Here is the input.
Amino acid sequence: LMDRRSSLSGNKIKIGNLTIGEDLLVIAGQCTIDPKNPNYFYETAHAVKEAGANSIRGGVWKPRTNPYSFQGDNKSLDILMEAHRRTGLPVDAEVMDEHQLHLAIEAGVHMLQVGARNALNYSLLRAIGGAVASRPSTVVLLKRSIHMGPLNEFISAAEYIAAFGNPNILLCPRGTSPAIDGYRNHPDESITPLLKEKTWAPVVVDPSHSVGKAAYVPACALAAVAYGADGLCIESHISPSKGIGDDPKQALTPEMLAYTIREARQLWAA
Ligand code: PEP
Ligand code: MN
Here is the structure.
């Protein structure tokens, strides 16, 4: 593991109009884009912008536990990019293989998400590193593995990408397994200061997958900011019960999101 902390601690990561460190990064939007109901996604995109998010997330391809569940759709990539055009905000989507990686890059996705299931998929990490090497404006949101061991395992995964030359990586704790009873995972926002001590990369916590229930998301988000997080990645849907994927359980309504962002920004600035 190369220690890039000293050489890259001054590295400024820009995402849209935001420079990390100058304001709290909030990536918000649906777990899963529903290609049959694009208007939900456009309404969600406008609503999360209104609520104070500065980046939009939307799952195009989804890693589902059940192989018969909805797996995503290439059409959702167009919907995601249309939401970018309508709001002016940069967009984030998970890529699970090299084909999706190239489609996302071709389309102009601003933030490529490595999901928790692929956080230790070294050939995918290398492919992403290679693909973004000549694109410093493309940022990678690297989730922590569900079964992640020592912190160095997480940091080394980031290094796999950074080794190709683009260090613009956001480390994303998203809860680990086994879960705390009642939560989806074991929330791990408390590793934020440890990561920040050891590496160059900003920490963007995902409270949604950590706790897995909308009612508990705001507290987890605020805890993350109290621990020093540079950003949050929060699932939100204009009408959670109409969502697919994690949204019916996990997505915040735009009102809850606005409350969470307001409180989080106040704490972040304090
Ligand atoms: C997601 O962001 O919707 C997702 C699948 O996250 P994770 O990879 O953390 O489970
Ligand atoms: Mn999800």
Notes: The chain has one domain: 5-269. The two ends are 34 Å apart (CA to CA). The CA atoms of residues 139 and 168 lie 5 Å apart. The pocket of manganese (II) ion (ligand 2) is lined by residues 31, 209, 235, 245-246 (CB under 6 Å).
